[in-house]
Each structure stands twice: as structure tokens, then as C-alpha cells.
């Protein structure tokens, strides 16, 4: 336990510095987690000393932040699910100041994966007070703008991230948004000038746009400076014969049962 | 063994009470006092145990709601005294939960009990189900006032323990209700989370014993406790891991559908949520009997309809039970219908408190995009060409740039049929499609499917009492007999051959 304590203070001190040594933190974290397992604190059950639980929680929180900084998303997911035990089942502990940032990060992570249903489920389980926290409000706004289609606002919100760790997810969010916008443009426009397409997709240089256009299979006319979108299949209406036959047979069978 | 011995006595009593109930039916004008009602209910319970027909027990439990409002200490004490003529440990333990009555009271009760004692001296100890029923009444009584919540929890705990130790199938209908009372006690004492392990353990046992009613009741208890603490994940897992017994009663089904609807709505699965809520509304007791449930379901239903892009019927908001409760929702509906973002925001802010209390706030906040979508759709219907600037002004959007993205998204999501001409900055709306195509067939097949399901379910719900067909058989036998006689008469008489042949065929 005493070695745990020194490791814990060590980790806290080294993570709090302006540019923490991530590698060292990683090794410390894995040692600490071993210690936590031995103390039965990693997945706590029953009544345990509140102070121990707070320390365990803090270690896991640092671990979650550390995972983001090392861009290890699966590891963040693991830390987050371990932390959930502390946040929901041990709600009597003094509230952690890192809880909302971590929950907010989790929400953004769900957004980047387009797991909107999970996003709302997670949001619903937060209390009403959580919505006032800037850490939660940020992903909530992002989601709203995404759903509306106000992509420009999402783009503009990049700089407003309440914590440095959000930046990592926001970048990958931009990839998602670009694809969304592109799919909208494909259906909404017949053709689009190259310059406008670049601004709509938030590209700064034409070469980036050209690479992107190639990946989506757009027809780029460089001399006229425009993109034409191939209309996908001029709505050939097919009569679903098989389905109609199947349902008619079903009705016949059911009617026979009734009569 | 004791069950077998009890039966003859029970039957005698039954006959007596049949007469009694007949008498009561003859003079229905004065409503029965709570005590009379409890007494007749006890008889019904005994009959249910004796005939192994849960139907009688259900009849008893149906009166529970009206009965529990009229309970008080003296009524309960008297009921216990009447049910247990002789002194027994059960009686003692039952009475210990009631506050000691005033001395004059007990004297009266005692003398009354003694007076009736010789008459019913031979009456055996009532079945344990009666004990449970009385305990159930007591828990409900203790639930009624905040000062006795602690006691209610204690009593319900003890009752559940006893119930599990007895492990009698004939007790199942009552057991289901006891669980409900237990939950109520815990909830009122705001310790609902602590009851969860209890429910989970009991649910496992109930499903092992194929105790459908308790299982249904417990699943609902668990869902309620999860949703109370907004643990939608856990609730969803519970739903996916358990099978809700098909034979459960309508009230349980209604609750279950409501909880499912809530989970599905949170998960953005609106069409499934709407289906569940519709089932909940159909299965719910009449609006006047259970207005609370009716209103709660409708509140959620309105929100889900809106989220699906539909506008609920206006008649819904004129329903006498719903009118007042749904005022805030009605205003939201109006805002969504006109597609006015400003009106929507002010309404949302105005009624935020109520929505928070109803736990629909986050769902309603999601409606913002629907408001915009409706607005765009209205515009696309009324204009064949409209500039993005005008869209921006009409929908109170922040910038033209936003408007372009939003319209683009609406086109992609097939909300409107249009194209954007970027160079000129306007939206061109395509002609409306005729309303014919495979989707019409889909809509019809959905409705037909529903009707067929309803029919099949009502066929399944019909009750066939045991041995009832014997009577019919006997009647058929008689008819055949008569037929034979007729044939004989015909044969003996001077009749045509044709008629004879017709009669003989049967």
C-alpha cells in the first residue's frame, strides 16, 4: 500500500506538469492498476474506505486523460467503463471535478463514431445539473448542430473546446462532418464550382479538395472549374413482387383461419 | 396434506358464502363496508386455493385499489380478528404491526370475536394466502402516511421472506401484488435503489418456477427502478435478457410497454417507441380510473409522435382527463406544426420545469431539428423557388451558410424533393410525386398486420373454463337422444321416406 501511495503521488506530480512524460505515466499507470487490483479497488464491490475509493478514482481519471493524450481510444473506453462504477454506484463519494470533462469526452467519442443512440442514452443518465457544465454543453451543442445540419457552427466550435483533450476528438469529428457534407452535396446539387465546394467542405487548398473528390468519385472538370455529381440511378421504381405475393399469401392464410 | 383436509370445510363455507354473496347482490344499494369486503375477499381467496383457480384471486385483487383508500387501523384490526378466530402465531404477528387499539375498542372487538367464536369454532386456520392478503392490505395502509414508511418497508420485507419460504403456487397472484407494495414502500421511503438486489434475486427465482405473474410484476419493478435513476443502459440490458411472460395481466403489460417506450424513445428508436406506447395506451385501464398513467403515457406519446415528424390528433388535447395535463405539450405541438423556431424556444423555456419533472425535457430538446425540418418542408411545398436568404429569414436561422447546409441535409434525408443552385443562391423544389407506389402497399400491410394480430390476440385471450365443454357434450347427447326418438316416431308413424332419410343422417 505504501508503494502504491508513492507511485500515486509520483503519477499525479508527473501528469500535472505542463508537458508530462507520457511514457513514464504509462508504466506508472499499469503498475498502479496492478496495485488497485490487489487492493480490490479496480472494480470495487461492497463497502470500502471512501478515501481509498477517491484515490482509485483519481488514478483511473488520470488514466483516461492519458489515453487521450496518447491517442489510444480503446484504452479510454476501458478507463471510462471502469470509472462508471465510481460515478454511478458510489455516488456518495465527494464529486470529482474531472467527472464532467471525462463524461463530455465520452460523449464526443460517441459522436465521432456516429453512435447517436448511445450518445442520447449516456446523456439521459446525467442529471439536469450536468447540462450547465461547459464540458457537457459542448458535446450537446455539437450534436444539435450536427443533427440540424449547421455544419458551419460545428466547424466554428473547434476553437471553443473546453479542455485540451477535446481537440483530439474534434479533429476526427471533422472527418465525419466532411463525409456528411459531401453526401448532402451529392444529392442536393447538380454541379458546384470548385471554389465554393472547397469552402463548403472547409478545405483551404484546391489540392486537398481534389484528393477528396477523387476518393468520393466525383467528376471534376478543371477547365470549367466545377464538379458535377453523377445522379445515382434515376429512380427506377421496382415493384417488390416477392413481398406483395408473400403478404397476400399471408392474408389468405389468416383469413382462412378466421372464416 | 393440510390442503387436502381443508377442502371439505372450505366447500361448506363456500356454499354458505354463495348464499351470502347472493344476498349481497340482491341488495346492492348500500355499498359494502371495508370489513365486509375484506371478509368476502378472504372467502374468495380460500375458494381460489381450494379450486386451484387463480381467477378468484384476481377478482379479489381487482378490488384492491378501491379498498385500500378506505383502510384504517380499526378496519384492519377487525379484519384480522374476523379472519383468525383462534389465537395463533400468525394472528399475533399480524396484530403486532397495527398500533395498539384503545382499550374500549379492543374490548368491543374481543367480545365480538367471542360471540362469533362458538359458531365458527370448527373453522380451521385460514390458508396462508389469507395471511398474505391481510399483510398486503396492511402494507398499503402503512404506505398511505409518511410517518409509517419505515414500518411499511420492514413489514414488506418480512412478508416477502415469509412468502418465499412458503413457496405456494396458489399464492402467485397475491405475491405479485406484494412485490408491488414492497416497491411502493421503498419508493416512498426513497430507498428504491436498495430494493433492486431483492428484486433481481426474486426475479430469478420466479422465472425458474415459471411464476409468470410475479415475474411480470418484478420485471416492471426493476425497469421502474432503473428508469427512476436514469439507468437506461441497464434497463435495456434487462429487457434484452428477459422474456416478458405472455400470460401477464393487462396492467403489467401496459406498464411494460410504457417502460419499453421510454427506453426506445431515449435510444432514438421512435417507431418502436410509438408502437409500444400505443400498446400501453390500449392496455391501460380506463382513463378515469387511472388518470395518472393515462396522462404519463400520453405525454410521452405526443413527444414521440412529434419526433417522428407526425402531428398528434387535436382531439387528444380536448380529452377531459388529458386537457389540463397536456397544455404545455399542446403549445409545443403548435410550435412544431408552424415550424417556428422562436415560438418553440420560448415555449420550451416557459415549461422547462414541467418537462423536467415529466422527464421529457431532453426528448423535447431534440425536437429542435424537427421544427426546422417542418419549416423547410412547408416552404418547399408553398414555393417552387426560394432564395436561401429568405429561408434564413423565415426560419430564424443564424446565417445563409447554415441555411444552405440545412437544406442540403433535408434533401439528402428525403424530407423535401429539391435541388440547390449554388451560383444563384436559391432552392428549386421539384414537383410533388403522386402518392402511389410501393410505400402505399407497405402502409396498408402494416395496418392489416395490426388488425390480424389484434384478432389473433383476442382469440387467444378467450377463456375456456375447465370442464365447461362437458355441459355442451351432455346437451349434444340429449339432442342426439331426442333425434333418435324423433326418428323412431317417424319410423313408427306414417311418413314419407325422404324425411326419414333426412332425420337418420344425424
Structure described in brief:
The complex is a heterodimer of chains A (259) and B (506). Chain A is mainly alpha-helical and 259 residues long.
Per DSSP E runs of 2 or more residues, the count of β-strands of chain B stands at 3
What general form of chain B does the structure show? globular
Tell me the β content of chain B: under 5%
Which oligomeric state applies?
heterodimer
Q: What level of helicity do the residues of chain A show?
A: 55-70%
Largest sheet of chain B: 3 strands, antiparallel
The string of secondary-structure elements of chain A, in order, is HHHHHHHHHEHHEEH
Overall mean pLDDT of chain A stands at 78
Count of separate DSSP helical elements of chain A: 12
Number of helical regions of chain B? 26
Would you tell me the structural class of the helices and strands of chain A? Answer: mainly alpha
> What's the helical proportion of residues of chain B?
over 70%
Distance between the termini of chain A: 78 Å
Describe this protein's structure.
- Chain A: InterPro entries: 26S_Psome_Rpn12 (IPR006746), CSN8_PSD8_EIF3K (IPR033464), PCI_dom (IPR000717).
- The complex is a heterodimer of chains A (259) and B (506).
- Chain A has twelve helices and three strands, in the order αααααααααβααββα.
- Chain A has helices spanning 2-16, 22-39, 50-69, 73-89, 99-112, 116-124, 134-148, 151-156, 166-188, 194-200, 206-216, 241-258, and strands spanning 191-193, 219-221, 226-228.
- Chain B is an all-alpha fold.
- Among the domains of chain B are: 2-111 and 123-190, no CATH class; 384-432, no CATH class.
- Chain B contains 26 helices and three strands.
- Chain B has a three-stranded antiparallel beta sheet with strand order 1-3-2.
- In chain B, α9 (149-166) runs antiparallel to α10 (172-188), α12 runs antiparallel to α13 and α14 runs antiparallel to α15 (270-283).
- At the A-B interface, α6, α7, α8, α9 and α12 of A face α13, α20, α21, α23 and β2 of B.
Amino acid at each position: 500500500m505504501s508503494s502504491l501511495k508513492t507511485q500515486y503521488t509520483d503519477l499525479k506530480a508527473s501528469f500535472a506538469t505542463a508537458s508530462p512524460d507520457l511514457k513514464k505515466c504509462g508504466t506508472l499507470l499499469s503498475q498502479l492498476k496492478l496495485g488497485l487490483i490487489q487492493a480490490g479497488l479496480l472494480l470495487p464491490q461492497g463497502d470500502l474506505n471512501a478515501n481509498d475509493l477517491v484515490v482509485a478514482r483519481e488514478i483511473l481519471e488520470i488514466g483516461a486523460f492519458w489515453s487521450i493524450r496518447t491517442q489510444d481510444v480503446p484504452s479510454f473506453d476501458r478507463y471510462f467503463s471502469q470509472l462508471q462504477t465510481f460515478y454511478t454506484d458510489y455516488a456518495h463519494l465527494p464529486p470529482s471535478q474531472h467527472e464532467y470533462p471525462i463524461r463530455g469526452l465520452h460523449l464526443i467519442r460517441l459522436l465521432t463514431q456516429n453512435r447517436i443512440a448511445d450518445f442520447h442514452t449516456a446523456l439521459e443518465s446525467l442529471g439536469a445539473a450536468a447540462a450547465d457544465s461547459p464540458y457537457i454543453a459542448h458535446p450537446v451543442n455539437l450534436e444539435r448542430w450536427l443533427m440540424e445540419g449547421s455544419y458551419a457552427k460545428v466547424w466554428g466550435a473547434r476553437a471553443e473546446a473546453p479542455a485540451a483533450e477535446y481537440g483530439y476528438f474534434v479533429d476526427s469529428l471533422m472527418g465525419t462532418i466532411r463525409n456528411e457534407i459531401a453526401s448532402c452535396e451529392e444529392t442536393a446539387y447538380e454541379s458546384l464550382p470548385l471554389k465554393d465546394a472547397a469552402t463548403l467542405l472547409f478545405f483551404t487548398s484546391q489540392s486537398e479538395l481534389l484528393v477528396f473528390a477523387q476518393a468520393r468519385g466525383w467528376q471534376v472538370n478543371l477547365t470549367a472549374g466545377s464538379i458535377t455529381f453523377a445522379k445515382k440511378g434515376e429512380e427506377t421504381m421496382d415493384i417488390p413482387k416477392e413481398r406483395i405475393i408473400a403478404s397476400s399469401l399471408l392474408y389468405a392464410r389468416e383469413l382462412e383461419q378466421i372464416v | 396434506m393440510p390442503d387436502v383436509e381443508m377442502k371439505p370445510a372450505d366447500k361448506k363455507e363456500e356454499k354458505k358464502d354463495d348464499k351470502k354473496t347472493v344476498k349481497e347482490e340482491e341488495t346492492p344499494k348500500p355499498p359494502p363496508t371495508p370489513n365486509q369486503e375484506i371478509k368476502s375477499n378472504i372467502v374468495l381467496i380460500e375458494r381460489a386455493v381450494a379450486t386451484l383457480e387463480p381467477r378468484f384471486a384476481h377478482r379479489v385483487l381487482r378490488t384492491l385499489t378501491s379498498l385500500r383508500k378506505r383502510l384504517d387501523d380499526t378496519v384492519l384490526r377487525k379484519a384480522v380478528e374476523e379472519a383468525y378466530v383462534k389465537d395463533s402465531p400468525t394472528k399475533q404477528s399480524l396484530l403486532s404491526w397495527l398500533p395498539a387499539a384503545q382499550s374500549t375498542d379492543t374490548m368491543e372487538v374481543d367480545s365480538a370475536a367471542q360471540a362469533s367464536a362458538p359458531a365458527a369454532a370448527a373453522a380451521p386456520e385460514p390458508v396462508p394466502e389469507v395471511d398474505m392478503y391481510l399483510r398486503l392490505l396492511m402494507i398499503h395502509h402503512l404506505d398511505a402516511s409518511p410517518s409509517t414508511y419505515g414500518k411499511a418497508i420492514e413489514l414488506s420485507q418480512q412478508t416477502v421472506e415469509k412468502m418465499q419460504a412458503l413457496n405456494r403456487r396458489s399464492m402467485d397472484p397475491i405475491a405479485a401484488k406484494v412485490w408491488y407494495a414492497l416497491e411502493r414502500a421503498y419508493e416512498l421511503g426513497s430507498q428504491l435503489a436498495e430494493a433492486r438486489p431483492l428484486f433481481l434475486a426474486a426475479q430469478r427465482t420466479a422465472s425458474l418456477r415459471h411464476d409468470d405473474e410475479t415475474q411480470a410484476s418484478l420485471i416492471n419493478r426493476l425497469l421502474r427502478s432503473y428508469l427512476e435513476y436514469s439507468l437506461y443502459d441497464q434497463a435495456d440490458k434487462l429487457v434484452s435478457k428477459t422474456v416478458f411472460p405472455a400470460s401477464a395481466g393487462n396492467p403489467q403489460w401496459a406498464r411494460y410497454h410504457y417502460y419499453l417506450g421510454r427506453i426506445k424513445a431515449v435510444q432514438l428508436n421512435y417507431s418502436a417507441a410509438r408502437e409500444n406506447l400505443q400498446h400501453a395506451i390500449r392496455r391501460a385501464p380506463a382513463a378515469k380510473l387511472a388518470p395518472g398513467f393515462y396522462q404519463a403515457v400520453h405525454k410521452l406519446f405526443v413527444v414521440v409522435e412529434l419526433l417522428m415528424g407526425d402531428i398528434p390528433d387535436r382531439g387528444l388535447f380536448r380529452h377531459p382527463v388529458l386537457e389540463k395535463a397536456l397544455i404545455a405539450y399542446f403549445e409545443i405541438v403548435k410550435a412544431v406544426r408552424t415550424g417556428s423556431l422562436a415560438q418553440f424556444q420560448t415555449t420550451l423555456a416557459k415549461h422547462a420545469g414541467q418537462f423536467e419533472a415529466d422527464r421529457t425535457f431532453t426528448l423535447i430538446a431534440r425536437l429542435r431539428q424537427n421544427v426546422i425540418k417542418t419549416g423547410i418542408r412547408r416552404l418547399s411545398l408553398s414555393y417552387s423557388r426560394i432564395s436561401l436568404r429568405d429561408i434564413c429569414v423565415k426560419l430564424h436561422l443564424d446565417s445563409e451558410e447554415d441555411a444552405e447546409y440545412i437544406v442540403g441535409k433535408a434533401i439528402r434525408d428525403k424530407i423535401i424533393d429539391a435541388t440547390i443552385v449554388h451560383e444563384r443562391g436559391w432552392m428549386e423544389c421539384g414537383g410533388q410525386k403522386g402518392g402511389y407506389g410501393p410505400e402505399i402497399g407497405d402502409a396498408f400491410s402494416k395496418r392489416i398486420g395490426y388488425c390480424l394480430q389484434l384478432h389473433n390476440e383476442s382469440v387467444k385471450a378467450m377463456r375456456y373454463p375447465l370442464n365447461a365443454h362437458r355441459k355442451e357434450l351432455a346437451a349434444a347427447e340429449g339432442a342426439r337422444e331426442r333425434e333418435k326418438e324423433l326418428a323412431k316416431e317417424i319410423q313408427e308413424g306414417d311418413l314419407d321416406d325422404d324425411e326419414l332419410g333426412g332425420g337418420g343422417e344425424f
